Write the structure tokens for this entry.
Amino acid sequence: MAKRRVAVLVGSLSKEAFSRRLANALISMQPDSLDMRIVEIGELPLYNQDLETDAPPPAWTKYRQQLAECEALLFVTPEYNRGMPAALKNAIDVGSRPYGKGAINGKPCAVASCSPGALGGFGANHQVRHAVVFPDMPMMQMPELYLGHVDKMVDPSGKTTSDGTRDLFRKFLDAFAAWIEKNGKRPA
């Protein structure tokens, strides 16, 4: 059976971001049924409907094509001021347009949030969940992944620091793979 392609969108643009560490850790542990890859969002111009012409910005076109080739999305986000980073919201907006033809529309997804603090990005996690309602993306509800104290759970190279963390990630990823099988469609 062919692997399910999953776009991993990392909310922080920093190369040393905790959310990138988390994304790399999850990718390194992905089930055999998934092909998870980071799709970069840092070069996307802010969404502006005036640019939605026959020749939209090349970065939008490239990004949308990468998303169109995927069957699911995993959002990995930090929390900025109790919410998701602007870059991630912009990536959702660009991916869901043009209206009715978005590259993310209807694709199953999940969200993992993290913070060096105790709450694990709770506010950002729920903002992502809210933002994908309109593009009709089936969001995995459980298990949730709010990773507080991420700096102690995932090292700078993206490796987990304990068996408990590895078990948590495996459960999350196995549930996500099952969610994609249940809710995903194969590309034509």
Remarks:
- Residues 91 and 130 are 14 Å apart (CA to CA).
- The chain has six helices and five strands.
